[in-house]
Write a structure and sequence with these properties.
Length: 391
């Protein structure tokens, strides 16, 4: 094994603590290759290469209905679910069909930048609700809903990432979820929960989904195989009340026929049928638990006093807050020059200035040794800025 230290890394390709990608060694596993081969040998393989049903390949829809019903204590029916070409496709569908240009959507501050991008593509008026370490601040949501009502505006939905948030890593408690649902009922607000990290709890139980707590009323829940199996599959799912699924099935892009990624869906259905899913998820949880702990330990060791960070219970991300004198975009540039890539906080907010004191760190992608060296480099960079500013 090559042992790297913080000083010698600058000449190599940067250590990637920037992109929310899964561990590369978890992708082309022997089990995945075997499912691919079995799917290719099956007599119905041609169906994965043909246009498929609008709601998605039936065998995978069945697997998901059973999994979600069992894990979340709900009783999904086929009318509640459709496959989508990744979670982002579902966000786009809902934005296009429910908000429309000029509509209003509430998001969290910070949030997943590609959701901001998609919502802006549809010329939607966005309002950001602040978060704290416990997730979305319910009082702030209530104030904004009341204010919008006073303006004669009714938001089409709240887009939220309640579990292992991107970028904060936080998880909304059961109590706060119930409070949000009370507000949603009072103001007639639809909730779109982006739950793509739900399967990746480090340990311990995950709070009930909004969909489960609301008994499927006025909640859309988005899932994806991108963070667990492979983002290249372009495959996810939308669970929602039957009228929402109907609207999404009846829209132009779905009605051209074909369903979402029938080829991928057939391979994934074979993968799940072969019993590979559960052991894979257990293995991923172990990998990400170790990496999270490693990154947290490295932050303790190398970050200068005055820097704070979140302690996620799952997912991929840690959200770092810099001392008030240090600017994130400058740290990002200096860290890259020293051999480590991190994301500055700006793009996670509607107003990028709100992110100038934050960095998002990803522990899912780099290997353990790189994680340690990467945080060591970052700690030196931040300390260097603090030192210069104090001179
Ligand atoms: C909250 C959230 N939603 C969706 C996605 C993307 O999912 P997909 O690849 O299924 O479109 C990501 C990936 O970074 C994410 O963090």
């Amino acid at each position: 094994m090559i042992i790297l230290d913080a000083g010698e890394h600058a000449e190599r390709s940067p250590i990637a603590l920037m992109l929310g990608h899964p561990d590369p060694t978890s992708l082309a596993t022997p089990e995945f290759r075997s499912a691919l081969a079995m799917a290719a040998d099956a007599p119905d393989f041609y169906q994965g290469l043909q246009y498929g049903p609008d709601a998605g390949t039936a065998s995978l829809v069945e697997f998901l209905m059973e999994k979600i019903s069992r894990e979340q204590g709900v009783a999904l029916r086929p009318a509640n679910i459709m496959l989508v070409a990744g979670a982002t496709h579902a966000v786009d569908l809902l934005a296009r069909l429910y908000a429309k240009p000029g509509g209003v959507v509430l998001i969290e501050a910070p949030t997943y930048p590609d959701a901001i991008h998609v919502l802006r593509d549809h010329q939607i008026e966005l309002h950001a609700i602040p978060m704290d370490d416990g997730g979305l601040i319910v009082g702030a949501l209530e104030e904004r809903l009341a204010w919008l009502k006073g303006q004669g505006k009714s938001p089409s939905f709240l887009y939220t990432i309640p579990t292992f948030h991107n970028p904060r890593g936080s998880t909304l408690s059961d109590a706060r979820r119930r409070e949000v649902l009370e507000l949603a009922a009072r103001f007639g607000l639809m909730i779109v929960e982006d739950d793509v990290y739900r399967d990746l709890a480090c340990n311990g139980p995950v709070p009930n989904s909004f969909f489960a707590l609301a008994h499927g009323q006025r909640v859309c829940s988005i899932g994806s195989f991108s963070k667990t199996l492979a983002p290249g599959l372009r495959l996810g799912w939308l669970v929602a009340p039957p009228d929402v699924i109907q609207t999404c099935l009846a829209c132009g892009t779905t009605q051209m026929g074909g369903g979402a990624s029938p080829f991928s869906a057939q391979v994934v259905a074979q993968y799940c049928r072969s019993g590979y899913w559960e052991p894979h998820i257990q293995r991923l949880r172990g990998i990400y638990l170790r990496r999270r702990d490693l990154m947290l330990a490295a932050l303790e060791r190398y970050m200068p006093a005055g820097t704070t960070w979140t302690h996620p219970e799952g997912g991929f991300f840690i959200w770092l807050t810099l001392p008030s004198t240090v600017v994130a975009s400058a740290v990002k540039r200096a860290a890259l020059a020293s051999g480590v890539a991190v994301a500055a906080g700006g793009p996670f907010f509607l107003d990028p200035r709100a992110g100038e004191q934050h960095l998002r760190l990803v522990y899912s992608y780099a290997d353990p040794e790189e994680l340690n060296v990467g945080i060591h480099i970052l700690g030196n960079v931040v300390a260097g800025f603090m030192q210069r500013l104090s001179e």
